[in-house]
TrEMBL record:
CDD domains: Aldose_epim_Ec_c4013. InterPro entries: DUF4432, GH-type_carb-bd. It comes from Brevibacillus fluminis. GO terms for molecular function: carbohydrate binding. The lineage of its organism: Bacteria, Bacillati, Bacillota, Bacilli, Bacillales. This is DUF4432 family protein.
Length: 355
């Protein structure tokens, strides 16, 4: 650990002309291609550097930890929400990847038709700009807290009137990012609520010999995932052009602190990433594998719903409804580790034993 990251407020401020010398937030705007005009924030905390895309629902783009990229970026790259295609699988044509893409708010998973409403893959929210966006660099006692917040609406005449209030937080020298979402039904009728964090991890974290650590209960395959690959759900193979995408459902079991954890480890590079969340907020968890050459990614997908689309949830009596003026909270922590010692310590403390 670098000593300067542990300095107290007074000692740190004595040694810099501006706190932005070591940490801070800057507003950014993309100037070229499909991303032209997209606004966001460049957040630096001394170890982590990440992009928050205010014009894409305050989702998180690339993340670097000690200069090492952790997130996966799709071939689409950063792109404006104006290119969103809501029909069928059109969502994929504007899927940038990044550490976090939010799916919802009234549809997640397979395209379907619910009544007279055509619902495309993974819903609309990630392509919607945020409003009332603000950022802050504030001292909380001896700790510099960096935060970005705003709200994202999903509304339609004679239909849902939902708002997602999002706050993303990190601290100077920290190895974690916290996200807090509050989804509010601002309408006078119940609204369906389907919500998923599409967390996208890529090379060099994702590589041959990388592996997953979690407290798994029942493990089941989604459509197209073979039984043989199901047995190896916690392993990452080398890139293979002949492998289709796979999705595995994992019933995560809470640790002693009542949080669920999933950890991806690359032992050769001594890198790891973890997600931490409460099962009451995200009762379901899936792993998405895109192993093809030129793709090569792994996704963590905590959610309150399945992946077969809203109609399937409704027909099976599993669709969550948000009452008028009710709200639902979703929170998660993303953590980054570097060094075999730090990874082994995390596994021992969290899971009660070696990997």
């Amino acid at each position: 650990m670098r000593a300067y990251l542990n300095l107290k407020k007074y000692e740190l401020l004595r040694k810099v002309g501006s706190i932005k010398q070591v940490a801070g937030i800057e507003m950014i705007s993309f100037m070229d291609g499909r991303a032209k005009g997209v606004q966001g924030f460049d957040v630096r905390n001394g170890r982590l550097r990440f992009t928050v895309l205010s014009d894409r629902a305050l989702d998180i783009g690339q993340v670097e930890f000690d200069g090492i990229p952790f997130a996966w970026l799709s071939p689409v790259g950063y792109s404006s929400g104006y290119f969103y295609e809501p029909e069928a699988d059109g969502w994929q044509r504007n899927f940038s990847g990044g550490l976090l893409t939010t799916c919802g708010l009234t549809q997640v998973g397979e395209p379907c038709v619910d009544g007279s409403e055509q619902l495309g893959l993974h819903g609309r929210i990630s392509n919607t700009p945020a409003s009332q966006v603000a950022y802050a660099e504030n001292w909380d006692g001896e700790t510099l807290v960096l935060s970005v917040k705003g709200k994202v609406g999903q509304t339609v005449l004679f239909g849902e009137n939902l708002e997602m209030h999002r706050t993303i937080t990190t601290r100077y020298g920290a190895q974690t990012i916290q996200i807090h979402d509050r989804v509010i039904n601002q309408g006078f009728q119940p609204a369906p609520l389907l919500f998923l964090y599409h967390i996208n991890l890529g090379f060099p974290l994702v590589d041959e010999h990388s592996y997953l650590v979690c407290s798994a209960g029942n493990v089941t395959a989604w459509e197209g995932t073979s039984a043989a690959n199901l047995e190896k759900f916690d392993k990452i193979p080398p890139p293979d052009q002949n492998v289709n995408e796979e999705v595995i459902h994992v019933d995560l079991q809470p640790a002693e602190d009542q949080y669920c954890y999933a950890l991806l480890v690359n032992p050769n590079e001594e890198l790891a990433f973890f997600i931490k969340f409460r099962k009451q907020q995200f009762p379901r968890f899936s792993i998405w594998k895109g192993i093809r050459e030129g793709v090569y990614c792994l996704g963590f997908e905590p959610s309150n719903c399945g992946l077969n689309g809203r109609l399937h949830e409704k027909e099976n009596g599993q669709l969550e409804w948000l009452a008028p003026f009710a709200e639902r909270h979703f929170e998660a922590e993303f953590g980054f580790l570097q060094s075999t010692a730090a990874i082994q310590k995390f596994i021992e403390v969290t899971f009660g034993g070696p990997a």
